[in-house]
Amino acid sequence: MYLLIIINFSCYLLITLRFLSIIINKHITYILILTTIDVEFLLNNLLCNDDPNKYFNLIYKTQRTARDIVKSIVISTFEELDNEFKESAYRKSRYYINKSNVPRTLITIVGEITFYRTYYISKNSNKKFFYIDETFNLPKGDHYDPIIKAISISKAVSTSQAQAVRDTSSF
Questions:
Q1: Which of 77, 124, 129 is nearest to 99 (CA)?
Q2: CB 59 within 8 A of CB 93
Q3: Residue 130 CA from chain centroid, whole number
Q4: 0.90 cut: is pTM over it?
Q5: 3-state secondary structure 130-165
Q6: How many CB atoms lie within 10 A of CB 120?
Q7: I want to staple 152 with a disulfide (CB 3.0 to 4.6 A). Which of 83, 136, 168, 171 is the partner?
């Protein structure tokens, strides 16, 4: 409990202008690139031919682009927060780095995301933890994010358990 209070308090200290600048600049560029590609696709493929699937193609392409943007934002936010903590004076005075670049994959409503994080060990108690997992309350060894779990439980209550499994596996 004490460790979580320290981590949550330190989270507020870590949101620096540098961090915000990295996230914003990285994603503005990424969003501009993806939307430019989408506009080119629309002009070349949707508006200039008689394809009966124009609407479907428009929605599909836009949805895929939105998912890619969200995945990129989540991954880079996790990794930048972890890096900010790793480089902080607070961390250096209290925690050793046990392992770096440890991958974690989550199944989310926008698809599968894999991000890399650091495994820390306390200098005082030898307690080991992942800063990102603690900060975002991600259960150890769990591959489904909380939203997917909530959808699964809701579906299992309102439909059959087998249908809930099929719906969840579509993510």
A1: 129
A2: no
A3: 15
A4: no
A5: EHHHHHCCCCCCCCECHHHHHHHHHHHHHCCHHHHH
A6: 24
A7: 168
The count of other CB atoms within 10 Å of the CB of residue 33 is 10
Q: Can you list the alpha helix ranges (DSSP code H) found in the chain?
A: 2-14, 17-41, 54-87, 89-94, 131-135, 146-158, 161-169
Residue partners of 82: CB distance under 8 A and separation at least 6:
116, 117, 118, 131, 132
The residues, any chain, with a CB within 8 Å of residue 3's CB and separated by 6 or more, are: 122, 127, 129, 134
pLDDT tens digits, residue range 97-111? 999 999 999 999 899
Averaged over 152-166, what is the pLDDT?
73
Per DSSP, the three-state class of 117 is: strand
Q: How far apart are CA 160 and CA 149, in angstroms?
A: 15
Q: Considering only CA atoms, which of 20, 38, 8, 32 is closest in space to residue 131?
A: 8
Say if residue 68's pLDDT is above 50: yes
